[in-house]
Amino acid sequence: MKNLKEQIENYKPYNEQEEKDKEVILKYINTFDDVLTRNNEFGHFTASSWAVNKEKTKVLMIYHNIYNSWAWTGGHADGESDLLGTAIRELKEETGVKNVKVLDDNIFSLEIVYVNGHVKRGKYVSSHVHLNLTYLLEVDENEILHIKEDENSGVKWINIEDVKKVASDKWMVENVYKKLNEKLEKYR
User: Do 61 and 73 contact (CB within 8 A), yes or no?
Assistant: First the structure.
């Protein structure tokens, strides 16, 4: 957890949203000792990936069943403090890809994402927040893709400029995906 906290402390926020979210995430870490697990029902760590093709013109997205929207890949830390590893694991599980290239070992983005109450695996999960770290990854767009049926009902490559058209979560489109695409420009 110490290394994760240092990574977050050293992260340079991109905008006001990241400045405030970084401040709140660090407060969470200092207040709760269980933020790496879902035992903290108010908020816990997740890791996502902005998985792009080699040309950085497309992003690999899933149709997320709970959010009912096209979304990035990602998942819960579940006790692990290596959130880059979590992001890679979740990308592979949710899309079926085998080979992932890390474009940057550092945190690419951070955000606090609100999650509405929902039913997962037959049990109700109360509304809470995800303290999310995003990592920039690359995948060969010719890899065979597979749906992870218990979590998503679609996996596909989406042109960067079309993300705002296919994702239905307005807040994510305007505050997260737009930011990720802006930040991607320096890697082209």
Answer: yes
